[in-house]
Design brief:
The chain has 853 residues and is α+β, with helices and mostly antiparallel strands. Helix content is 35%, strand content 17%. The strands form twelve sheets. A five-stranded mixed sheet has the order 2-1-3-17-18. Strands 5-4-22-21-20 form a five-stranded antiparallel sheet. The chain is elongated. The termini are far apart.
Length: 853
Amino acid sequence: MSAQKTSASRTKPVSAVGAFVGFVGFSVLAGLLVTIGVTPAIAVAGVTTTSTIGVFESLPEYIEIGDLPQRNELYAYQGGKSVHFATVYDQNRQELKYDQISDNLKNAAIDGEDKRFFEHGGVDMTSLVRAGVGSLAGGLGESGGGSTLTMQLVRNIKMQQALELPTEKERLKAYNEATETTIPRKLEEMKLAIGLAKKYSKKEILTGYLNIAYFGDQTYGVQAAAQHYFNKSATDLTPAEAASILAIVQSPNTRNLSTSKNYEANKARRDVILKSMYAQKHIDKEAFDKAIASNPKDYVRLTQPTQGCRASVGDGSQFFCDYAVKVVKGMSQLGGTQKERDTAWRNGGYKIQTTLDIGLNAQQKQILNTYDNKAETQIALGATLDSVEVGTGRILTMAQNKDFDEALKSAPTSTSLNYAVDYKYGGARGFQTGSTFKAFTLLDWIKAGHGLNETVNGSERVVSPWTKCGAPDYTQFDVHNDSPGENGNYSVIGATAGSINGAFASMAQKLDLCDIETMAKNFGVHRADADPLNTFPSFILGTNEIAPLTMAAAYAGIANNGTFCAPVAIDQVTDATGKKLGGQPKDCSQAVDPAVAQTAIYAMKQTITSGTARGAQTYDGTQMFAKTGTTDEAEQIWLIGASTKVATAYWQGNTDGKKLNLRHYSNGVDGNSYAGARADVWRQAQTPVNAAYPGGTFTDPSSTAIRGNSVQLPNLAGKSADEARSTLSSAGFTYVDGGTQPGAGEAGQVSKTSPAAGSYLSKGASVTVYTSDGSQASVPNVAGKSVGSARSQLESAGLSNVSISDQYEKGGGSKECTVASTDPAADSVVGKDSGVTVKLYGTKDGKAPKDCK
């Protein structure tokens, strides 16, 4: 709640009856104070009753000045050095010590608000009586009823305490009670002021007042006011500036200097204070005349507060700043309960060292500005680049194509949503990850003992059944591949490079869907909206909505030989006393055996060298692996990769829920579509990361790990169906009758298998066996043979329709009359009744020799 909301109550009109009651009440109170000897004796008639003293003494006596809300400062890294990049606070305040405050300010406060400040004990009887008489004339006056600076400090402390209550209803009630113009409130204020005067020195009280007072336009304390209104320190204020600041306190809404509309009202009160300063000999005639002659427009140099994440330094650092603030406000270093942590953050004074590499972040922001136009009007285009350090989880970058707008103004080029993070941290609700999620099926495949060279069916088809948490699941999943022609059998390493959906469905069928889910969870993967991961079979292709930061951290865990480290944004928290409280603890766990991670990395390295991420390899030669992701409608596009040091996730997509294909919209830069440029964008983003965090060499897996427990399929060609069945059974495979097809050899002999001979298969894999009907023959290779020998061999193969060509091949010498070639060519499979033409060598010039045939 803003302090301005109830400031008008300080000048509330009083009725005639109320004025009389006010006069009597103030007279009673004045006499009471004299009676108990709190202030210098002054005769006020008619008040000595024991009951009144009892009421007064029943009120609380002490109130603490306490710690006032101050600024929290955030730091990032640049070139390895800590640099300040943001100031965040609940109230714009910077506390000063007594000696740091301008004498002009101190004098303006005392002369304008409480001339006998150094003489009374917290309550000024002369002002009190004058206020009582004034109330009889029609009101309490600007001072709120004889308020001393000490009493005003009490009121400000009570107001501040109200603003720190947990609910808006509680804050409003307590704030109104602290500022209401009633006798009971005034009585309590005086009693507490007396307690303050007993406990604190005059310097402490005056300093406390000047640091706590509200000066309008969300500005608290004289230092913030001086910086905001004059662009200078409160140490260096002129008499006119000092008086103008103090002129604000009694009516912060109408006298603050944030607008020229308030100048006249401010000047009127300022001049009253200046006259008092002159009368008290705190300024001489020359200074007085100069100050009185000035107009606020002559010295107001309004500067916007450089607070909040929106004003953070560094291109694109605003979203990380907002995330870091939300993270630190939940850290135990600030308190044991959320209420305590919220209060501690409001009180402020913290220095927060974050993990952000502000230089790298700015570079990535510029790349996004170039390739993912924040002003794109055809689609609601969002994009992020998030880099996470391998082995620590430290977040190095959090760049976004849109500008940060915490004020929710919803300009087309800006947003308050941080697309990179979970919903609870101010993010969107995540985005479908597409095939980048396949990494977890691959990891579980390898963990289960399968190999990269194993052959699986990659065809588009309806896939069922599955195994889910140990039980059969008969959900039918109609699997489609991303590109035409992606059908047939693939090795797992080839399917990974090409991101073949059908192949990964085949792999998942041999696994348990719950095991794949567990694998993802082990790497910190969770939905951005905090709902459980859905585990319908389609989830293996990335249908869950997940935040880009989550995926970047997961890939950093893979790069870390399977050890996942939760994302960290805070390196160190230092409190207002300079005590270091520590940062977010490093939270790492072994998600999978290192050999499994190394084998998966080996496969995903091919994605960059020959697969869907071609073009992502940086020119520095750093070893990296990656995986691309594209949703069904290509409305979400991903590329996530890592070196041994840093993982980077690049996401771009529709942010309004529409299914607009990013392949159909040009980025307007290089002739590419938004989707088509992803490898180039990722390469440009990762290049400076590699320079700052040089990567090493990944550990290649052993040949055994690559092969896994797969078995090579023997060559069954020429065997009978029964022999093939027996051979397959002995090898641990399942025989599937593919039927008879036109083929060579004897009828009933095996002509081919699917997968082909030599493929690596897992135990229990089905092998389709095709037998020949004997209607075809394979043309033997008869080159170099004599005519008779060639004819005999062709006829033995079942090819009886043989003719000799009248055309001769140039040859001569010993080659004359020998076979040069056949048509169809050797090894061709043709029907047995097909004609075969034999061409012979002739003389050197290609003429027919004698007696060849």
